[in-house]
Amino acid sequence: MSPIALSLTLIFVLIPLLLSRTLNLGLEKDTIVATIRSIIQLFAVGYILKFVFDSDSYLYILLMIALMIFAAVHNASKKGKAIPGILWKITVTIIAVEVLTQAILLGFGIVPATAQYIIPISGMVVGNSMVLSILFLNRFTSEMESQKNRTELILSLGGTPKQAVHTQLTDAIKASTIPTIESQKTMGLVQLPGMMSGQIIAGADPVQAVQFQLLILFLLLTTAVVSSILLGFLSYPSLFNERMQMIRQTNS
Amino acid sequence: MTTYEPAIHFKDVRYSIDENPIIGPITGSFPAGRITTLVGPSGAGKTTVLKLCNGLISADSGEILVEGKPVGSMEPTALRRKVGMALQDAPMVNGSVYDNLALPLRLQKKEISEDEAVSWLEDVGLSSDYLHKKASELSGGQRQKVSIARTLVNRSDILLMDEITSALDRASRREIESLITRINQKYGTTIIWITHNLEQAISIGDYTWVLIAGELVETGESRILEDPADERVRRFVKGELQ
Q1: Residue B200: in which H helix or E strand, if any?
Q2: Which spans are transmembrane here (chain A) (predicted)?
Q3: Which of A17, A55, A111, B158 shows the smallest number of beta carbons within 10 Å?
Q4: Per the domain annotation, does A249 fall within a domain?
C-alpha cells in the first residue's frame, strides 16, 4: 500500500468524527485518542517484528512471547480478584497452553520453527487463552456465589471440596468454551475469519489461506478447552482451607 | 436438675468474622440422645453454633468436643457424617428424590438400593411413590422431609437442624415436629434444632439453649422458657427482642 493510499484511509476516521460533531455524540476525543494509539502501537509492533524476523534470534522470539504473556496475565488477573493467588494461576495456565501448542506445532513439523510463524501463532494462542481465562473466571465466580447452598450441602453431607464444586466447575468450563465451539460452526458462512481475509488481501492463494485458518481454528479449540480446565483445577482448591471449609463464610 | 452425658461440649468458644465477634465466649453442652432447641433473636449466632458443631467453620479460640473428642482432631468428612446437618431451605440437587437420597453415599462412591431409599422415605412419612418424583416438584414440607431423610442416610449420631419449619404451614410443621421426636426415639439420635417458635421449643425440646447477641444467656430443660431467670430472656420470650 502506498503512503498516499494509507493516508487516505483516514477518511474512515473523519466520517465518525464529523458525525459525532454534527450529532453532539461527544465521541471525538476518544476517537482521536484511539486512532493515534492504534497508529503508534501497530507501527511499533510492526518495526519490532521486522527487527525480530531479521535477527532470526530465538532470544528475541522468547522475549516477544514473554511480553505477550505478561500483558495477557495482567489483563486477565483483574477479573479473578476473589480467588487467592490468581496471578500465578493465570500465568501457569497461559504458559502451559503456549508450551503445549508450540510443542505440537513445532514437534510434528506442522509449521517451520521461525519467528514468522511462532510469533503470530503465539499471539493468537496467548490472546485466546487470556479471553477464555476471563470468561471462565467471570462464570466460575458467579456460579460459586449463586450455588453457595449447594456447595454447603455437599460439604455438610461429608463431601470433599472437589465434590462440592464439581457442578459449578464443569458448568463454568462448558459455558466459557461453548462460544469457541459455536463460532466454528458458522465459520466461513457469516464472515471470513480475519486472518484468512488478511492473507487473501495480501495476495495468498485462498486455499492455502483456508489451510492456515483451519490450523488456527483447531489450535484455538485446544487453547480454549485446556485453558479453562487448567485454570479451573488450579483455582478451586484456594476457595477452601485445610479443614475443607469455604473461605470467607459469612453467616448469622 | 437431671445431668446428661454431653454429645457436644463447647468450652470458651469464640467465633468472629473480619474481627467482628459473632459468638462467645460460650461454654455449654448439648445432652446426648436428647432434643435440644436453640432459640434466640435473629442474628444471635444460632446458625454459627450449628456450623461449629459439624466443622463447616472453626472456632477462633476455645474447644469443641464431639463425644469427648476435639473437632479439630477429627477428619472433616468423618465429622460431618457423624454430625449431620439439615439446612434451613433444604437445597436439592437436580434430579429425582432418589438421586437426592443417594447423594450422601455417592459422595463415598457407594450406591443405595431402591428398597433402602424407600425405607428412608417411609421413615420420614413419605410413600414410595415419591422416589422417582423430580426434587424440584416437591412442596416445602416434602422437601424438608426428603432433606431430613437424606441426612439420615449417613446414619449420623447427632443431627443438626437449622430453622427447617420456619417456611412451612401449620400442618406441615406439626408433621416435621412429630418426625423429629420419632427419629430421636427410634435411633436415639441427639438432635440440635434451631427454632424461632417457643411453643415448639417447649413442647418438642427436652433441653434448650437461649442465645442473645452471641452469648449463651440461659441453658437448661425446656421449661425454663416458661419462667426465665434472666431479664433478657424474659424480654425475648415476651417477644420484645427480635
Answers
A1: helix B198-204
A2: 57-74, 86-111, 117-138, 214-236
A3: A55
A4: no
